[in-house]
Amino acid sequence: MKISPLALTGVYRVKSMLLEKVNSWAAEKDVLKAGTLVLVGVSGGADSVCLLHVLYSLGKLNGFSVAAVHVNHMLRAEESMQDEKYVKDICEQWGIPLKIYRKDVKSYSKEKRCSVEEAGRILRYALFHDLKNELNAQYIAVAHHKEDQAETIFLNILRGSGLNGICGMEDIQGCIIRPLLNVEKSEIYEYLSRNNLKYRTDSSNLSNIYARNAIRNRIFPEIARQTGFNVTHSLVRLSDIVKADRDFLERLAEENYESILISKSEHSIELDRDKLAGLDFAVSGRIVRIAWENLTGSRKGLESKHVKAALGLAAEKGKNKAIDFPCGIIFKTEYDRAYVMKKEESEAPVPFSMEVRAPADILLKEINILARFRVYTADEFGKNFGRFEKPGEKSLIQLFDYDAVAEGINIRYRLPGDVFAPYGGPGKKKLKDFFIDQKIPRHKRDEILLLADGREIIWIVGLRTSEKYRVTKFTKNILYAEITGYDGDGKGRRKNED
């Protein structure tokens, strides 16, 4: 018979059942390993005191360390101060390092126009992460248990949540761990009782003005009385079933995201519009959320109404529009592309124009581009480089007939009234019309580098050269132009992207 390691510690088995449960969970999930530091959020209530003691006990057994953090929300006057004192006392008794914060949650909720509950959650987790980084801890442990999970799922259902909401909380979410998530409240009380552990009771938990309290204190008990169902067990079982479907759809969305992704930066995600619109909503909606997460760092904040509006826009053939997402993000469509991007990225850059007098080496610092210009006679060019061959249109090295320049050369962005005679084309057209013909997205047109002779465009860098300035057998002087540091997609690399 295999003996549990915890049975060897001298702790009575009846006292260690919960320890064994959490220890098995940690081994299965490969967390709480020797040498790691776990930061535990402790309010002083039954759940967090139980969690702190469990991790303190397992840490001694398995070789990991525990530190505690308490956030005083300053909502219940003297009662809040007593909670703080109690947490301080037990941490001193057990020799656990403790950090205490005091935050005016009510004022913060008014400032941010959110509920007191949400304000407290935002402040707590921000402080937890700050202290984790300060202490170089590996995990932040919080004391959510099975009943908390059921309440969260039920609240999400009431809010009209999708699969992710029905799945509830994860036992491991980045550096956040919830070791008690599969533990029932009765197990927690039993553990506290058998280990003679006291705890604080938050009087606000008895008030049903908060939705979660009303669910816990009135709705779940009434459902149980009327139907005989254990609501907690039913909702957690639903969550477990739904997670398999959710995970499959997430994998499918990730695969499709990679196949329709055209380009990405910290400012913008560019997607194939037709492929996005052609996918089932269960997948395409997740792709929009993946792009959102890549820009914002979180899936939170983007509601289903935003996702539906974006996909509806993507499906409108021939319409180039933009809609606002939260957090300064927009979703826009142009031609065969869909973009999820930060608003400032969609704004035109500050116009610039710099005169070129060859020979010249010009460093455009704001976009990290080096432009080199030289002038050779036809004979000099032949002696130095051999027979003339026309570079490809997308090459970043080009040759032009220098004597065709009438007003002087400038390197710049586009201006109203620009005209262009595309190489090999029938004649001149407005630069704007050329961009439209080439289906170049509007937000990229203002960042395409140009070489210009007055309003006449010599070269759309990386895209096309002008027929008017092409080198022929009659050319006497050749302008050599070379651009370094250009990404070849009609845009320079800005400093803040390096």
- CATH architecture identity of the largest domain: 3-Layer(aba) Sandwich
CATH topology of the largest domain: Rossmann fold
- On the 0 to 100 scale, the average pLDDT is 87
User: How many separate helices?
Assistant: 17
* CATH fourth-tier homologous superfamily of the largest domain: HUPs
Shape: elongated
Strand count, sense and barrel status of the largest sheet are: 6 strands, mixed
Major sheet strand order: 3-2-1-4-6-5
Task: Tell me the β content.
Answer: 15-25%
| Share of residues in helices | 40-55%
CATH class of the largest domain: Alpha Beta
Poorly predicted sequence stretches spanning 5 or more consecutive residues: 1-15, 488-498
Radius of gyration: 32 Å
Number of domains: 3
Cα distance spanning the termini:
60 Å
Structural class determined from secondary elements: alpha+beta
Count of extended strands: 22
Explain what this protein looks like in three dimensions:
The protein has about 500 residues and is an alpha+beta fold. The protein has three domains: about 230 residues, Rossmann fold; about 80 residues, Uridine Diphospho-n-acetylenolpyruvylglucosamine Reductase, domain 3 (2-Layer Sandwich), CATH 3.30.465.60; about 140 residues, Phenylalanyl-tRNA Synthetase, Chain B, domain 3 (3-Layer(bba) Sandwich), CATH 3.50.40.10. Helices cover about 40% and strands about 20% of the residues. The protein contains 17 helices and 22 strands. A six-stranded mixed β-sheet has the order 3-2-1-4-6-5, with helices on both faces. Strands 7-8-11-10-9 form a five-stranded antiparallel β-sheet. Strand 10 and strand 11 form a beta hairpin. Helix 2 packs across helix 8, helix 4 crosses helix 5 and helix 6 packs across helix 10. The longest helix has 30 residues.
